[in-house]
Amino acid sequence: MHEREFRNVFALVSRGMKGGFADGMRRLGLHVGQNFLLEELWRQDRQTPGELARRIGVEVPTITRTTQRMEAAGLLARTPDESDRRVVRIGLTDRGRALRDELPDLLDQAAGRALDGLTEAERAQLVTLLRRVAENLHVAAPEDGG
Hints:
The chain is mainly α. Helices cover 63% and strands 7% of the residues. The chain has seven helices and two strands; from the N terminus they run ααααββααα. Strands 1-2 form a two-stranded antiparallel ribbon. Strand 1 and strand 2 form a beta hairpin. The two termini are 34 Å apart.
């Protein structure tokens, strides 16, 4: 009955990771999940909601709600496209860009706590196995983790 054990342990890990991320993100004025949007905009600023939704793997209404909250917090600005005023572009504010210096380290610290006590070989094996699980679920796993 490995499936049930996997499901239960994975749920525990997922909850624990989310909680660990949430504590640090709250100190920065963020909510869990907003990091994905920030990371995508750090890669390429001024994207449309549709582009962000495809790249992150969520629905456009999710992007719309999230960007509204993040805009109210001063992290993002939604502005019309220069060539087609009907298209909205989502871009980082100075505050959103500044989080690039803090957020990845904060998330790495939370992940480090989760990996505490594992050898380098065990850490590598865990990442390899989780990539395979992600592939089974047809979810793109980041190559470099960052």
